[in-house]
Amino acid sequence: MIFLRSIGSVRSLRHFSSSGPLTLKTGDVFTKKRVFSNEDVINYSKVSHDSNPVHFDAECARTLGFEDCLVHGMLVAALFPRIISSNFPGAIYVSQSLQFKSPVYVGEEISGEVQATNIRKMKDKSLVKFSTKCFKKGEHLVIDGEAVAIFPSLSGE
């Protein structure tokens, strides 16, 4: 389920169904929750060719100071384009910066959040900058970053 929250002096949570077009405004926040499984980690490893044992060998992960095997950080960060493209089909990712703040383990519920921080209209498109964050256990920040995408329209039609 994707949510939109307008940021201002009062925080409100609004849920939009597909019954009407959604228009993006600066300050809008979209979220998506996801729990990553062992199968997700294995499939990501096959596609990315990232076979670092810290993702598959619990003893190796513990030796390095982690509680258990890690979910690939880039797999977790894949929440950001999913959130944007599911609300605004045709949006094209231009850039993404990431800071990995804390490990993510298989089975943890992760909440990805993108907030529109700047919208610059061009001729027939818009360039949108987002603050991107992932949290676990409510408000524990695990990924922080920024993304830029080109939108053919600011409406989620």
Automatic annotation (TrEMBL):
GO CC annotations on file: mitochondrion
Q: Which GO terms describe its molecular function?
A: (3R)-hydroxyacyl-[acyl-carrier-protein] dehydratase activity
Q: Where is the signal peptide?
A: none
User: Residue ranges of the MaoC-like domain?
Assistant: 31-129
Q: Which GO terms describe its biological process?
A: fatty acid biosynthetic process
UniProt superkingdom: Eukaryota
Q: What is this protein called?
A: MaoC-like domain-containing protein
Record the organism. Answer: Trapa incisa
Query: Lineage from the top down?
Result: Eukaryota, Viridiplantae, Streptophyta, Embryophyta, Tracheophyta
